[in-house]
Amino acid sequence: ILWLAAAGGALLLIILIVVSVSRPAAPPITSVLATPPGAAPEPAMDNAEAESRAVARTELQRFQQAADDARRLLTECEQELAAWDREVESELTGKRGRAVAAETETLERFSAVYGQPRTAKTELDACRERLATLLQPVAAALASNTAYVPSADANSKLSAERKFAQSAQKTLHDVRQDALSVFADAERKGHGGTQTLKEALADLELRQ
Known about the structure:
Blueprint: H1 2-22, H2 29-34, H3 47-87, H4 95-101, H5 104-114, H6 121-144, H7 152-189, H8 197-207
């Protein structure tokens, strides 16, 4: 009886070993958790592809930063336009403008400054729209983490837009400062008059 019991136990052990060996291994817990039900697992990225995407992302971020800088300059241009209206245009009928109109020399100086070409708001808006168009594929690529990089043509266009914004900002700032300088000089001379600067400019234009 003891012999039969021992033989039965050995046979049961052999059956358990065979079943455990033939059963397929369960997937790792991390794999099960990382892959949604019904979705194919994402293929592993090799080193070359990972490096390519990292380089592309650096280029995309550089492009984005350059575009942001151009848009910052456009905002400064808009601020300069507002300051011109507030500090210069308002004086065409104001007290400081009358001081300029009271003397021919300061009037002629102001006329030269006032006649300088200045970037219009519509030009700034057009530049901002062009920048938005250039940034559309860049924003999409940053969101999807692809290996896309902006073309040489896109970089050239971005550089041109940034130069435009930079030049416009400098011109608008410098012209406004020149006009304020004329106002300050006229005030130091202490001249006053009844004719507005707007009327004096119109008369000067007729004489010329």
